[in-house]
Amino acid sequence: MVLANHQEIVVGVDGSPTSMAAALWAAAMADRLDSPLHIACAVQEPTFYMAESVMVIPEEVWEQQRRTAEEIVDEAAKAILERHPYLSVATHVDAVPPAEMLVDLSASARLMVVGSSGTGLVLSTLLGSTAKVVADTAACPVVVWREGTGDPNSPIVVGIDGSATSAAAIAMAFEIASRLEVPLIAAHVWSAASQAGGVTLPLLIDWAAIEKEESVLLAESLAGWVAKYPDVVVERVLRQSNPAHTLVDLSEHAQLVVVGSRGRGPVRSALLGSTSSNLTHHARCPVMICRVHS
């Protein structure tokens, strides 16, 4: 299975309400997937570089930051165990840049969960820009938490465009939908502008042929996975539209949207890359970003 070799779900926290909500979501997912949960928080190193200057944090200030970070992970663990008393929960505080900490932890993780923004009490804010760095470089799929319906029976949405990262997203989406016993919405959205190849006269474009080609791409992308997971009910969505707008719309009634980190480029569907970034800011549920790893 895609998820079997790396069992732990890691969530980054920084004391902000967003990071606590992300931690509670990660705990619920860990409980449903029978995975242990690892709660991590970073504090700024005592000595660090800013531009060309070396900045030294006074020892008493650094110690207070570390105590604050330990309180943050302890409080998160307490809140989680009140809701999930049988969940295995570990905590971790490290004096490294937050992105570096999370990327290192991703090497042995099943999933990495971060909030979409951070405004916590720790000097070096964990989330926000860190979420993008982690999504771009982590060794496991990264979930950027956004507030959603909270309905555990709502469907998973997966964005499809025929790219390698899209294939990774499909694999994850099918396995999670199967494990959670929920439906899957498989969406392939193609842009008329990109498919026209720069042609501006609609009468010169064989739209029927293009739509047939896109329908074949969707069918071929799903074929093996439908056979592997016959228990998953799949709804297919094929639209000529803006990919980001369509996936945001579909996210309203979903519990998770799964996409690849990059798509096939501007000549074909621009589903991913800028779209995945758009989703992390505008989706109405958590967004999972999948990459292809060598």
Quick structural overview:
By secondary structure, the chain is of the alpha/beta class. It is 41% helix and 21% strand. The chain folds into two domains: 138 residues, HUPs (Rossmann fold, 3-Layer(aba) Sandwich), CATH 3.40.50; 135 residues, Rossmann fold.
Which keywords apply here?
9 helices, Rossmann fold, two-stranded antiparallel sheet
Can you offer a commentary on this structure?
The chain is 41% helix and 21% strand. It has 294 residues and is an alpha/beta fold. It folds into 2 domains: 138 residues, Rossmann fold, CATH 3.40.50; 135 residues, 3-Layer(aba) Sandwich (Rossmann fold), CATH 3.40.50.620. The strands form 2 sheets. A 10-stranded mixed β-sheet has the order 5-2-1-6-7-12-11-8-9-10, sandwiched between helices. The chain has a two-stranded antiparallel ribbon with strand order 3-4. Helix 5 links the parallel strand 8 and strand 9. Helix 3 packs parallel to helix 4, helix 5 crosses helix 7 and helix 8 runs parallel beside helix 9. The chain is elongated. The two termini are 17 Å apart. About 5% of the residues have low confidence.
